Amino acid sequence: QKEVEQDPGPLSVPEGAIVSLNCTYSNSAFQYFMWYRQYSRKGPELLMYTYSSGNKEDGRFTAQVDKSSKYISLFIRDSQPSDSATYLCAMTTGNAGGTSYGKLTFGQGTILTVHP
Amino acid sequence: DGGITQSPKYLFRKEGQNVTLSCEQNLNHDAMYWYRQDPGQGLRLIYYSQIVNDFQKGDIAEGYSVSREKKESFPLTVTSAQKNPTAFYLCASSTFPRGGNSPLHFGNGTRLTVT
Prior knowledge:
The structure holds two protein chains of two kinds.
Chain A: E1 4-6, E2 11-14, E3 19-25, E4 32-38, E5 45-51, E6 54-58, E7 61-66, E8 71-76, E9 85-92, E10 105-106, E11 110-115
Parallel strand pairs in A: 2-11
Antiparallel strand pairs in A: 1-3, 3-8, 4-5, 4-9, 6-7, 7-8, 9-10, 9-11
Chain B: E1 4-7, E2 10-13, E3 19-25, E4 31-37, E5 43-51, E6 54-57, E7 64-66, E8 76-78, E9 87-94, E10 105-106, E11 110-114
Parallel strand pairs in B: 2-11
Antiparallel strand pairs in B: 1-3, 3-8, 4-5, 4-9, 5-6, 7-8, 9-10, 9-11
């Protein structure tokens, strides 16, 4: 079983839809959770960065972390064609100074297409 | 503009040849990383370096080598020992705060094709 599981999709939605992207994980030591967006033939760019359980909102994006269920989500409201990309969840124990520092464990990525 | 520059964008090599991928950052970040991305497998860590002249193996280091002689530079060599080298290679960097965690910033990758 992989440490981080993410439904690869692909996911196709109409413009304006609410999109829900999800990841589950097995390592209870993960403390820091990230969502990256990756356009075709580009590097991932950081979208959301959260620590511990709860919600974090940034514009049309909301990141949700439920550590008790080992489950994280990214919601995109009023989705736009420009949101079409691969979305990667990532997480780390964040042991600063330790050997695990900065080592992210990624999900497989979900391919999202928003059509006009 | 601060950022991470990876070159070249596309690289083609014959089997049995070593090849070096370049990664330079001007973000003044302490830590640098190399990830490999394959379809359906997400990103996997190859090597990482927290300070100059020091680096550690990641999850899939076999067949790869790195050096960190300067803070700004972290080149990756894909050797002939790497059994399946064709992939998209991503370099990343982050600060090294005393507490907590700092997210990674990525370059735009090098797509290596070995035939």
